[in-house]
Amino acid sequence: MKRYMKRTLLCTCGCLAALLTTACNRPKQTAARTETVKTEQVRSLMMEPVEIDRKVELPTTLNAWEEVHLAPASPGRIEAFKVEVSDVVKKGDILVQMDRTQLLQTELQLKNYETEYNRAKILYEAGSYSKQNYDQIKTQYEVAKTNVDYLRTNTILRAPFSGIVSGKYFENGEMYSGSPIANIGKAAVLSLVEIDKLKTTIAVPESYYPIIKKDMTADITSDVYPGQTFKGSVNIIYPTVNPTSRTFDVELKIDNRDQILRPGMFARAHLFVGKENALLVPDYAVLKMQGSNERYVFVVDNGQARRIVVKIGDRFNDRVEILSEQLKPGMELITEGQARLNDGVPVNVVK
Q1: pLDDT 10s digits, 200-253
Q2: At a CB cut-off of 8 Å and minimum separation 6, what does 287 contact?
Q3: Predicted structure pTM score
Q4: Where are the beta strands (DSSP E) in the chain?
């Protein structure tokens, strides 16, 4: 039995030795996987600086060149309106006739004082009237004359400038109390605006303060009139900077002789601030990261595509200005095939 177990053990050891010898003598096989990166075919252009008119686009609201809310100096009954809303008036036209009862009474009083004054003057010059009585009657006459002039001015409301009636807040026969009107916040019976020219105030970044000058030109656009541009110019440059927003106010004067634009409209002011060199590229060369607002382009860098994040500046028809500290004139911008690229992919520029 012992002899049988010994023989079996020797046989097993021999088999293991044979297997180990075979494994050691078997040639090593290494599965080498080689990945080949595809070279993408692209087209490109050389980026060169282009001189552009630099402009700042700012949102704004248009205002009438002049606006006045007319009201008499004291409460009273409105006798008659001579105009309606949207009527065009000229400077000096009668707009509102207030009640004239007090005016007529004061005019009668003035006539009495005038008669007494003329008689006292003759007697005083003849030496038959005391200076004290003469001065008293003269003062009464001058006060009555001032009252009549005041009432005449406030009984008849005239247009202080040529314009359009923009608001009417009472009807004939109603009492004007002197209380503010809710939608304008001021006491008035009538509103008048001048719109042959308009004005608007824009908040300009403080970095442009040394550049903005009086009479500098500006373009005004409105979504109400797509494709149309209205001419404006700098009228007033305010002397202080808002410390919170870091902006300063600039008032623009806008030519509106055709009266197309209206006060209250939303508009965009394009203020020209000089000429600069910029990198302009076809708009289709700029890609957008899906799900975000990030924009980027690809340039050729030592035979590979290099991805550069950019910001978009001004637009010039089908070209856009791209901004990035990594972009330099003379770089080769990829304009076709860029949608297939990743950063570092080999590229071949097709001429």
Answers
A1: 999 999 989 999 999 999 999 999 999 899 999 999 999 999 999 999 999 999
A2: 295, 296, 297, 298, 338, 339
A3: 0.64
A4: 40-46, 49-61, 63-70, 76-81, 88-89, 94-98, 156-158, 163-168, 175-176, 190-205, 217-221, 230-237, 247-255, 266-282, 287-288, 295-301, 304-316, 319-323, 332-336, 347-349
